[in-house]
Amino acid sequence: MSDSPQISGFQVRPVVVPLNPPLRTASGVMAKAPLVLVDISTNAGVTGSAYIFTYTPVVLQGVVEVLKNLLPQLESAALAPRANLAELRRKLVLIGTPGLLDMALAAIDMALWDAHARFLNAPLSRVLGGTPSRTLAYASFGMERAEDARPLIAQALDAGFRAIKIKIGYPTLAEDLAAVRAARALTGERASLMIDYNQSLSVPEAIRRCQALDDEGLAWIEEPTRCDDFAGHARIAEAVRTPLQLGENLYGPREVRRSIGERCSDLMMLDLMKVGGISGWMDAAGICAAAGVPVSNHFFQEASAHLLGVTPTAHYLEYFGIADAVLADTLEVVDGHAVPSQRPGIGITWNEAAVRRFAA
Fold it and tell me: I need a labelling partner for 86 at 20 to 30 A (CA). Which of 162, 166, 185, 309 fits?
């Protein structure tokens, strides 16, 4: 095999894409998604691509500037994702990286791995020692009114999804129960049902509401209280019978290890942008496997479909096409299972006309 190519250039582009329907959570409504698209080129003629989601446009340009300052430090380096990221992290050890720096580093890591797999002319899952394999997926929705949820859930069921997630966190427990029961009436026995509180409850209120939901047959209850309240989540997990799902807001494998060690939840949801990109996912997946904790993903479904295929305790893939508007090809779902791309790399190709249309 030829020597690894050298990193020769990069491109960073902010876009703001529409969400249809808008994503409603207990903390507000998001009608558009601010994304940062990253491309890293090499002297071998292959380019790796990735994107991250900044949640709010307030930090979009800030993340762009961070990336534009980090990426030149990799120019002329041999393409080696883990070594490349270790070198960047070494330079940032005094400031620390949780937050915007980790988001930017994850984007770089994902684009480097994509370039590496493309250079090897193999799908990411094969480069990581597996094969492109299907993962059971669930359709993810926001806090939809009953009349709006009905056609969305019906469409997901008709498409073959066997699991549905909705968001709750209404002003009262009665409203939460009504939303859950309305969704259950639509899914019946055809699909599992998960719910997501998006960190909206105090610990005592979370215990009260989650205990009330224990008889609703839910597959999991997600983030009932603040993501950084490890002790609080441990109290909730101890008090309720329904499995708790956490992880999307944990930064890096060390926080994943801490959460598992403190028994904060029964399940783990890894977010590529926060766990440390593909390198961080692989480390965190090993921690979860050692503890026997099932792993699902949060967003970034194209790369996550590959990674779940090499995750020993893989559980569900969250189907939410946050970047679909700027992708030439979107993730395929067949009979309720996500099918990772068999093209070299992650399988991301930009729709350049759409990128120009949604440029920020």
Answer: 309
Output the CA angle 148-198-187, nearest 5 degrees: 40
Across the chain, the runs of DSSP E, i.e. the strands, are 7-25, 28-42, 47-53, 135-140, 163-167, 192-196, 220-222, 244-246, 267-271, 295-298, 317-319, 332-334, 337-339
Crossing angle for the helix pair 252-261 and 277-291, to the nearest 10 degrees: 20
298 is catalytic: yes
**For residues 305-332, average pLDDT:** 97
**Catalytic member of 116, 165, 167, 315:** 167
Architecture of domain 7-122+353-357: 2-Layer Sandwich (3.30)
pLDDT for the residue numbered 2:
52
Q: In the chain, what are the domain boundaries? A: 7-122+353-357, 126-350
Cα separations in angstroms, 317 against 226, 326, 333: 23, 21, 10
State the residue for tokens 């921690």. Answer: 287
Q: How far apart are CA 84 and CA 348, in angstroms?
A: 21
Please check the confidence at residue 1 and state whether its pLDDT lies above 50: no
Q: Contact at 8 Å (CB) between 279 and 86?
A: no
Q: Does residue 328 surpass a pLDDT of 80?
A: yes
CB 288 within 8 A of CB 260: yes
For Cα atoms 13, 76, 282, give the angle at the middle one, nearest 5 degrees. Answer: 70
**Closest Cα to residue 120, out of 360, 345, 357?**
345
Q: Is 167 tagged catalytic? A: yes
Percent with pLDDT over 70 in the chain: 99
Name the pTM for this structure: 0.95
Over the range 138-152, which residues count as b (16 or more CB within 10 Å of their CB) and which as e? bbbbbbbeeeebeeb
Residue 68 CA to residue 89 CA, distance in Å, equals 16
> In the CATH hierarchy, which fold is given to the domain comprising 126-350?
TIM Barrel (3.20.20)
Tokens describing residue 45: 């003629």
Residues 165, 233, 274, 298: which is the catalytic one? 298
* Summary mean pLDDT of the chain: 96
